[in-house]
Specification:
- The chain is mostly helical.
- It contains 13 helices and no strands.
- The radius of gyration is 23 Å and the shape is globular.
Length: about 290
């Protein structure tokens, strides 16, 4: 069995463990600190980059802002995705005519390439000619600078766009979990006089709770590292308003050529997600019984 598993193990080591280990090594050097010309003259400097990030007057406020923005980005998105997904899944789980049509339509945002959707939303949210502001003007409301205004405006636009990209996945997963619930339970509850809300809270929620927890945890981890919505819409701006770890890592590495600092942020980001994942899996008991 180990011989058959060896190719997969080699691939995983090369594609996962090696990049993680090499990133950690770069974070302990001055790689790129002198610009592109310093790539071939790398010095080992130990934990100096970590001390700069956590103790210097320049990097510390930036690191705190990155952590706050990343947590807001992930938590705010999941707080929208899960209730909306449950609501739509509950509606689609009802005995309505043409159900397959609604299920097909609801998959369109998820099936469309994400960067096409994001570019479309960028034009729709444009301050000068976007259709969203045009609609607000028809209602005699002032235009909103969605992508360059106040933090509330910027985060509202990002959450709206991310919801459009993600809600079909959550809806379909929750719908599949709901359809696995035995119909006899609902029939018995109806005979006992239970209403819609009581059946949802006493039957549906307990049965799909493991699915909700799993999707919520993995969705939070994914969104924490969700790069393209923020990068394509705001690039972390205005200023540092919407900058998150993964966007800052990319910009620091490929625009400023400070690969050592970018690698240090990557290690910090990795450790944060690892700790959150371990704690969440432990207390949610998602892996209970796996090793039996």
């Amino acid at each position: 069995a180990y011989v058959y598993l060896l190719p997969m193990i080699v691939v995983l080591l090369f594609l996962n463990l090696y990049p993680i280990a090499y990133t950690f090594y770069i974070s302990l050097t001055d790689f790129g600190s002198g610009g592109p010309n310093s790539f071939f003259n790398v010095k080992f400097i130990g934990l100096s980059n970590y001390f700069h990030i956590f103790y210097s007057s320049y990097y510390l406020p930036q690191t705190i802002a990155l952590l706050q923005n990343s947590v807001v980005w992930a938590t705010g998105s999941i707080a929208i995705f899960i209730p909306l997904g449950l609501l739509l899944a509950s509606l689609l789980n009802q005995p309505i005519r043409g159900k397959w049509i609604y299920r097909t339509v609801i998959l369109i945002p998820w099936a469309m390439p994400a960067f096409i959707s994001l570019l479309t939303w960028e034009n729709m949210l444009n301050y000068e000619y976007g259709i969203v502001n045009s609609f607000l003007n028809l209602l005699h409301l002032p235009s909103v600078n969605w992508l360059g205004g106040s933090p509330l405006d910027v985060w509202s636009a990002l959450f709206l766009t991310n919801t459009w990209l993600s809600f079909p996945f959550y809806t379909i997963v929750f719908l599949a979990a709901m359809q696995a619930i035995p119909s006899e339970l609902y029939e018995s509850a109806q005979i006992d006089g239970a209403g819609t809300w009581r059946m949802f809270s006493r039957i549906t929620v307990p049965y799909i709770l493991p699915t909700v927890l799993f999707v919520g945890i993995t969705g939070w981890l994914f969104t924490f590292n969700n790069f393209y919505p923020i990068y394509l819409l705001t690039s972390g701006g205005p200023g540092f308003t919407s900058e998150i770890f993964v966007v800052e890592i990319y910009q620091t590495a490929f625009q400023d050529y400070s690969f050592a600092i970018a690698a240090t942020y990557s290690v910090i980001n990795f450790l944060i997600l690892l700790v959150v994942a371990v704690i969440a899996i432990k207390y949610a008991r998602l892996t209970q019984g796996w090793l039996k």
